[in-house]
């Protein structure tokens, strides 16, 4: 069996196991069993349900372990995934996401370890609930990790070396108006109208080169012929500049409060800082190693910071120098998510180059 065939086979096997955020246990147990049997890994599941696997080095003089991380969960709809393979490209049947985010990264790391002539001592972490706020990484038992440097396999482009992530503010809004029958609308105060006013004036989308904002959900009203009393809104803002994120979050909060008050409603707004912007130096050892690994397959590395949240934000905050590398997945978080076997092979070669460099 060729590498491409093995990668497709293992990815298809993994994505068929449902692991939407919060329901990863079956997949975590599957991985624990596979890593134990195929690599003689010492596997532990911490109190939050994250998987930590330790693998001794192979033909490598390096004694210090190196950290590799991925996440187990997928976004919804991720139950009943049935992968299809056409001309070397793996996708779902169109009813669900594929789940290659992040099971492609797990598949690639497994193949790299199985086929590499040498590698350093490895500490592998597969976290839970990454997609819903990095909860697994935030609750990881770091006393079980000895590594001080690492690599997270969880972005798309194979030539990317991500060294920074954003501050991320969650904006949760509850608008309270006054209910009334639609035939007597003048007696009510529409919470939907208040929300609409606020959403219309909030700056969203791409604010500047390092800042974005979004209103993700709005839920309100119960019947067509009633003035809606309550509306719930979930919004967010992100920025690579922490102060900008804080300022924009407060501006969004004020917009909802003022818009509600202007028509006699009330807005209760909760701000929660989900993560704080982090950045490691461009000349950090992990960055240099990642760039050389990408160059080894004939690509030009692109060192960048991104507004997307990853577990690396948590790991770097904890003092574990972590860069994020691509897995080759495309259109993640959509039913059109897909990945080619050729790109998965490239990812494996990048990981094996990292192993080789770490072994000197």
Overview of the molecule:
By secondary structure, the protein is α+β, with helices and mostly antiparallel strands. The protein folds into two domains: 3-165 and 277-358, 3-Layer(aba) Sandwich (Aminopeptidase); 167-275, Alpha-Beta Plaits (2-Layer Sandwich), CATH 3.30.70.360. The chain is 32% helix and 29% strand. It contains nine helices and 19 strands. The chain has helices at residues 3-15, 25-39, 100-115, 135-138, 191-201, 242-262, 285-295, 312-317, 341-358; strands at 42-45, 51-55, 66-71, 83-86, 89-92, 122-127, 149-155, 160-165, 167-176, 180-181, 205-208, 211-220, 226-227, 230-239, 266-275, 278-279, 302-305, 321-326, 338-340. Strands 1, 2, 3, 6, 7, 8, 16, 17 and 18 form a nine-stranded mixed beta sheet that branches. Strands 11-12-14-9-15 form a five-stranded antiparallel beta sheet, with helices on one face. α1 (3-15) packs across α9, α5 runs antiparallel to α6 (242-262) and α7 (285-295) crosses α9 (341-358). The protein is elongated, with a radius of gyration of 23 Å. The two termini are 30 Å apart. The model has no long low-confidence stretch (mean pLDDT 97).
Task: Note the beta-strand portion.
Answer: 25-35%
CATH architecture term of the largest domain? 3-Layer(aba) Sandwich
Q: In terms of per-residue confidence, which ranges show pLDDT below 50 for 5 or more consecutive residues? A: none
Average pLDDT metric: 97
Computed structural class: alpha+beta
CATH superfamily of the largest domain: Zn peptidases
CATH topology of the largest domain: Aminopeptidase
| The level-1 CATH class of the largest domain | Alpha Beta
* Fraction of residues in H or I helices: 25-40%
**SSE string:** HHEEEEEHEHEEEEHEEEEHEEHEHEEH
Q: What is the first-to-last residue Cα distance?
A: 30 Å
Number of helices: 9
* Main sheet characteristics: 9 strands, mixed
- Tell me how many strands there are: 19
Q: What's the number of domains? A: 2
Q: What is the oligomer described by this structure?
A: single chain
How large, in whole angstroms, is the Cα Rg? 23 Å
Apparent shape: elongated
